[in-house]
Amino acid sequence: MFNLTINSTNVANSLNNMYQYKFKNGAFEVPANAEMMITSFIIPYSWYNITSRYNNNSFKIYWPISTVNSLTLTNGGSGYTDVPTVVFTGTNTTIATATAVLAPTSVASITRTAPGSGYTSAPTVAFSGGGGTGATGTAFLTPTTVASITVSPKGSGYTSVPGVVFSDGGAIGTAVLTATTIASFTVTAGGSGYTSAPTVVFTGGGFTTVGAGTAVLANIVSSIAVTAGGTGYTSAPTVVFTGGGGTGAVATAFLGTGVDAGKVVSINVTTQGTGYTSVPSISFTGGGGGSGATATAAILNYVASITLTAAGAGYTSVPAISFTGGGGTGAAATANITPTTVASITIGTAGSYTSTPPTISFTGGGGTGAVATATLTATTVASISVSNAGTGYTSVPTISFSGGGGTGATATANIAPTSIASLTLTGAGTGYQASPTISFTGGGTGTGATATASTYIPNTLTLDDGFYTVNALNARIQQFCIEKKMYLTDGSGNNIYYLSITPNSTAYANQIITKLVPTSKPTGYVEPSGFIGYPAAARPPYVEILSTNNFGKYLGFSAGNYGINQIADYNVLSNLIPQGSTVNSLVVKCSLVNNGCSNQSDILDAFAIGGSSGGTFGGNLNYTNTIEKFVGITEGRYNNFIVNIVDQNNNDIAILDSNLLINFLIRVKK
Fold first, then answer.
1. Would the N or C end of the chain have less CB density within 10 A of its end CB?
2. 203 has which bridge partners?
């Protein structure tokens, strides 16, 4: 919170050409109808909040103790054939002890020693002996192709050739149906202009005996055009069809209105009839005494259907249907074959495969149930990969091959050199004044293993989502220290904390401060119940800023350990510009103000951070009023008045550097 109390000791009275108020005898007189404004405002940009919203921010606090708390294997080494001895070196009372646990060795690779021959699919790789379990491998064939495809079962109900889909490898194939017959035809377009039935032509389909069919025409009256409307009709006359060789056509005449009253203006064919081989003549009867109307009919001759006269035999795909003759054009039809099965697949492109044959599926064709299996051209084993290294191998296992249709392939396994997998702390020791070093002796031909020991107890503080000033963050750290029993209470009842994070107003930075934890309880101090413990030599706690969240960025510290293995009080300034500010504008409040235009009556002025005011952390924010922005103030006699600065959300600003300049202008309203 920033509150500035202005009184006769800290105000600079200056003359202006409007009105002048001064503190007289320590008091300040505000007459009726007075108003004030800020003319200029200079304040260092030196505040920030720490936010853990969105990130579940956390960091670690390590408390020094006198025993080994944990071990970290930093390098397992290699080539170990026996368990090495773990050696602790450091100042202590009782030496810590630990045992190394070797990582069971595994199969690292497989070397093919003979390719064999005759393999049509990848053989199965088996491991035997060697003392371990779980190793598996995959054989890859020398690149080969699809040699043949077997269809079984053949499915049923296929009325057209289904598509053939290969899962991989680039092979292409075409399905061949089991020989069948023509079942029927579907006319998809009737065409027009046919004066006689066209000939039905069959093309393709792989038949042994061709099918046959006869086209059946439909001869209908398609429309009637009025050539003369006549006169005097008081009702629609009856339309009469004569000749044309057909029957059944029916039409309705319609009379006009207005200038066309009494005339036949249109005729609608309601029944097209059948069998019209020539154009019938049109006449009219009735109509209430009218006469003179004439009209001309139009007929349409098209292919209505195809009669199957011979089913044919041996069709392995659907034949194409076309028409010739008959004087017309545009007729189209498709043949429907009797449902059948998939007999085989013809290979168009053999593809390329190095392990297993592709899987084959069928799409379309109207049937179901067909299954196909590909067989590769015989080849050799090119290589073997380890798909599971297994565990526990103490010698080289034997490799064998089975299946795949071939013989003669051989290979040898190569095991991975073993290493130290973990360390088990069996005795924490006592009296360690610092974290001891760890070394390894023995273990056969193994080398390179390294490890570290820690004489600190780690505690992770996860901040609740929200916004924190640095001081609020420090208060949360103190609460956490109470929760984890990482504090002492002095003789005056004050809690003594050995870690704090505070703002440094001089350096424009945050600061981590740690203090030496004593080796025993100081005289007059009290330990909390369950106190975490003392180190063997006075050491401060240390802080780990994690790289897995944004806490360090908001606070201004890069990821790393701060204060580890120190033997004196320690402090360090933030090494990054803090990124946690949530402030984008400042609101200035004043206890004199009576602002009737805002929901908070004490608001005097507000301005944004950035632009002409500046917005660089560590620099000055400069605000100058270029227009009159007067706000009414309350009449009275005052010893002081208070200026309060908050952010755009009415949160108090935690200002590190309180050196600021504010110029006020006060006058009686014009």
1. C
2. 320
Give the DSSP H or E segment for 93.
none
158 near 342, Cβ under 8 Å?
yes
Would you tell me how many other CB atoms lie within 10 Å of the CB of residue 485?
16
Q: φ, ψ for residue 258 (rounded to 5)?
A: 65, -130
Rounded CA-CA distance 224/268 in Å is: 7
Alpha helices in 385-517 (DSSP H): 470-483
CA–CA separation, 465 and 59 (whole Å): 14
The whole-chain average pLDDT of the chain stands at: 85
Residue 560, H or E segment: strand 560-562
Question: What DSSP string runs through 466-494?
Answer: SEEEHHHHHHHHHHHHHHTT--EE-TTS-
Per residue in 612-661, pLDDT (tens digit) is 777 777 778 888 888 888 999 999 888 888 888 888 888 777 676 767 78
Q: Report d(CA 102, CA 416) in Å as an integer.
A: 13
CB 436 within 8 A of CB 89: yes
Gyration radius from the chain CA atoms: 50
d(C-alpha 58, C-alpha 461), whole Å:
5
Average pLDDT over residues 405-415: 82
| Beta bridge mates, 399 | 127
Instruction: Provide the residue count of the chain.
Output: 670
Q: Environment class of residue 135 by beta-carbon count within 10 Å: exposed (0-12), middle (13-18) or buried (19+)?
A: buried
φ and ψ at residue 259, rounded to 5 degrees: -65, -20
**Contacting residues for 12 by C-beta, under 8 A, at least 6 apart:** none
Q: Report the relative pairing of strands 407-415 and 107-117 from DSSP bridges.
A: antiparallel
Q: Which residues 6+ apart lie within 8 Å of 289 measured at CB?
A: 232, 233, 234
Q: Which residue has the higher pLDDT, 335 or 195?
A: 335
Inter-CA distances, 327 with 69, 191, 192, 194, 323, Å: 103, 11, 9, 5, 11
Closest CA to 310 of 178, 180, 183: 183
Q: Measuring CA to CA, which residue among 530, 567, 534 is closest to residue 430?
A: 534
CA terminus-to-terminus distance, the chain: 35
User: Rounded to whole angstroms, how far apart are CA atoms 615 and 292?
Assistant: 98
Predicted pLDDT at 155: 86
Please check whether residue 470 is in contact with residue 503, taking contact to mean a CB–CB distance below 8 angstroms. yes
Q: What is the pLDDT of residues 549-598, one digit of tens each?
A: 888 888 889 999 999 999 999 999 999 887 766 678 889 999 899 998 88
Token look-up 């070397």 returns 111
The whole-angstrom separation of Cα 583 and Cα 204 is 81
Residue ranges of E strands in 167-277: 172-177, 182-192, 199-203, 212-231, 238-242, 247-255, 264-274
Q: Which pairing describes strands 467-469 and 49-51: parallel, antiparallel, or unpaired?
A: antiparallel
Cα separation, 187 vs 306, whole angstroms:
7
Residue 171 in tokens: 């092979």
- The backbone torsions φ and ψ at residue 552, rounded to the nearest 5 degrees and listed phi first, read -60, -40
